[in-house]
Description:
The complex is a heterodimer. By secondary structure, chain A is an all-beta fold. Chain A has helices spanning 137-140, 277-280, and strands at 3-8, 11-16, 23-28, 34-40, 45-51, 57-62, 70-72, 100-106, 114-119, 123-126, 134-135, 158-163, 171-175, 179-183, 191-192, 215-220, 228-232, 235-239, 247-249, 257-262, 270-274, 290-293, 301-303, 321-323, 330-333, 339-342, 350-353, 359-364. In chain A, a hairpin with a 7-residue loop joins strand 14 and strand 15 (191-192). Chain A is globular. A five-stranded mixed beta sheet of chain B has the order 2-1-5-3-4. Chain B is an alpha+beta fold. At the A-B interface, loops of A face helix 3 of B.
Amino acid sequence: MSTLLVSTRKGLFVIEGEAKSARIASSHFVGDNVTLARADRRDGAWYAVLDHGHFGVKLHRSDDRGATWTEIATPAYPAKPEGFVDKDMWGKDREWATKGIWALEPALDAAGALWCGTMPGGLFRSTDRGASWQLCEALWHHPTRVKWNGGGADHAAIHSICVDPRDPRSVVIAVSSGGVWRTRDAGGSWMPHTKGMVAGYVPPEQADWPENQDPHCVVQAPSAPHVFWCQHHMGIWRSTDDLETWQQLHAEPSSFGFPVAVHPREPDTAWFIPAHSDQKRTPITGEIVVNRTRDGGKTFHTLREGLPQQHAYDLVFRHALAIADDGDQLAFGSSTGNLWVTANQGDAWHAVAHHLPPIYAVRYA
Amino acid sequence: MASVVFTQNLKRHVECPDVSAPGATVHEVLDRVFADHPRLRGYVVDEQGVLRKHMVIFIDGRQITDRQRLTDPVLPGSELYVMQALSGGA
């Protein structure tokens, strides 16, 4: 039985079942803005991020699959040192305060440890299942961090965290308009890894600067950890040499989009959801499609069965595509509250719901 | 002692009964309240102690002016209302 956690603008919805039998089994935090939820398979805990707007961002954990929830600590920034200059791209003083949480991953080097990626760009680590958090100072004080600007958002966000299956102390993060970074010592030091990426929204001489790259989503192939896939603002990139270089790939009808998923056992198989350019951010000609490659991005097959093919204007956000451990089931949700699942790698899709709130994230528990 | 009343909307998320607390500034009064209700702090101010963007505090009907450090003076018998600014969105 598959369990899918669907985070939306107005609550968390739990989906049970596969393909045609998938149904909404329960709802949580209805009315509240749930921006991300996930399970930690080591201990079965579920985590949910709530953004209350007026009242700030909060984290909750359930140890009984959603029957009850407990508020845990929200990552908190230290006080800004006196005289420290940290201005955003609009020249305003950057507030050292958690404005959002966009990534949460089990830190596999210690039981109960977690990584948390926040806005405005701080990476936090907990060693006690979220009871307390420590800012990763080495990354926060990296000289280029103050240049991260968040792309279209007000704050730079760490949205992707890849914990290396070969060595859990090796972690890759991706930052909106901040690049791709790796630590090999559990956060003690960081290096950028964007060689081959290109930004088209800065003067040409800055196009390859690491901090100018705007990865929308980065995933690491679990079965071949030297392979990474990236849906970037400028298109699709792939690295097959453990992030030494990235190669750009081209897909029709568009290489623009937000999410990417990679097969758990086939590193050459990945899925993207194309959208019409950064200027429009809609499906092309109102047709919702999913692109799948099985040859490392040499070719893409455009999947349509079960998806609306006229007058659909759904956008799929970066965390709103997920793949299950079996490599056959995937799910994605849209900005207009549609949720689709497949049990055959996308050959056919089934609508689970059409009237959910805007969907921010889907994750298999 | 000043009396402190919190918006009903906050009570949905965290315990915040109407209370009385001593203090010569908003900061001092709220610190006493938060000492008894630690979870409440993060709902009203951020980790730097700054009043959250869309929150407002009134002292005897006047909106406070120092949202950064909450130094507005409070008199014995003052009434503090911790409210949600009406701001838009869905």
